[in-house]
Write a structure and sequence with these properties.
By secondary structure, the chain is α+β, with helices and mostly antiparallel strands. 54% of the residues lie in helices and 14% in strands. The chain has three domains: 57 residues, Arc Repressor Mutant, subunit A (Orthogonal Bundle), CATH 1.10.10; 168 residues, Endonuclease Chain A (Endonuclease, Chain A, 2-Layer Sandwich), CATH 3.30.870.10; 55 residues, Orthogonal Bundle (Arc Repressor Mutant, subunit A), CATH 1.10.10.10.
């Protein structure tokens, strides 16, 4: 989590316990080549976790409270920078959609497709002509089995042409049997699938040239905007990449963090502390109202909170929202 390679961390831990050790002793103890030990020591020195002692073979570890604190601050700054870039990308997308979605004189940049049938037809056309990649967001509830079944021929032809298919679902999709079967079939052909707790909207990007987003983010049945503006598509591609990097591959399990919270619990706690109702949380996470209320109740018990407001305050104090 701190960005340390296993060998580097092993050397650091050993020197915390045995600061008198030299390169040859560390090498023998860890079973690593001496050059690997020297490389690890250089990394630790660059990260200000280690200082050269008086002798050539002596090393002084910086106090973990100081050294690791500095490392954490550096990681926080990097994450803050990434978050600002993501917010800028979202603002750019919203601005471009608002601007071009209302201009009827620029069909080459933005086109509107009204209704589900028109959107499905356009998606089939784009899938049939894709050359390099097709990226997708699928928020909300699981897709109908017949919709997934009908997409299989196009998916298979695209993958056989060498097109990369990467799909992001919400974590709640993992509980749907039809989706599990579809993902299993897709993975055997080379398709990649990951999940995240929540997604902002439906999204399809083809060949980094064209993107489809909903006319109304709250009602995908109304239709879609087809965007061919280079700047807008690139911004949406950045948005997809951020979520993809944060996702968990379908066949990996979501383990608890240092506070014992799953990703879904963390996201739910954040939405709760932000003032969302149970209904809004369920919609954003693709969960039933009953599941949301049961999870909220369990989190409040763990926090020993008597109200939702108090739960948000206690969660912030406990570091659950960081």
């Amino acid at each position: 989590m701190l960005g340390l390679e296993p060998d580097v961390e092993a050397v650091y831990r050993l020197l915390l316990e045995r600061p008198e050790m030299g390169v040859r002793q560390i090498s023998g103890h860890l079973g690593l080549a001496e050059q690997d030990i020297r490389d690890a020591l250089d990394v630790l020195s660059d990260l200000h976790l280690l200082r050269q002692g008086r002798g050539e073979a002596e090393f002084r570890t910086v106090s973990p409270e100081v050294g690791l604190g500095v490392l954490l601050n550096r990681i926080e700054l990097e994450l803050g920078s990434r978050q600002r870039k993501l917010e800028a990308a979202r603002a750019s997308v919203a601005s471009l959609i608002t601007r071009y979605g209302r201009q009827q004189h620029a069909p080459e940049v933005v086109q509107q497709h009204f209704g589900l049938d028109a959107v499905r037809l356009r998606l089939e056309q784009l899938a049939a002509t894709a050359r390099t990649e097709c990226l997708s967001f699928f928020p909300g509830g699981a897709q109908r089995p017949d919709v997934m079944e009908s997409s299989k021929p196009l998916d298979q032809m695209a993958l056989e042409r060498g097109v990369s298919l990467r799909t992001l679902y919400q974590d709640s999709f993992r509980n749907d049997a039809s989706t599990r079967d579809y993902v299993s079939w897709l993975s055997t052909l080379g398709g990649e699938t990951r999940t995240v707790p929540s997604l902002p909207m439906l999204l399809v990007i083809v060949d980094q040239e064209v993107a489809l987003v909903p006319l109304d983010p709250d009602d995908g049945r109304r239709g879609a905007l087809e965007i061919r503006s280079r700047g807008a598509v690139e911004a949406l591609h950045v948005l997809f990449t951020r979520f993809w990097d944060a996702g968990i591959p379908w066949y990996e399990q979501d383990g608890p963090d240092c506070n014992g919270l799953s990703r879904r619990e963390r996201e739910l706690m954040y939405l709760l502390a932000s003032g969302n109702t149970d209904e809004a949380i369920g919609k954003k996470l693709g969960l039933s109202l009953r599941t949301v209320r049961r999870t909220v109740s369990g989190l409040m018990v763990r926090l020993e909170a008597r109200s939702r407001f108090e739960a948000g305050v206690l969660a912030a104090r406990a570091g659950w929202l960081s």
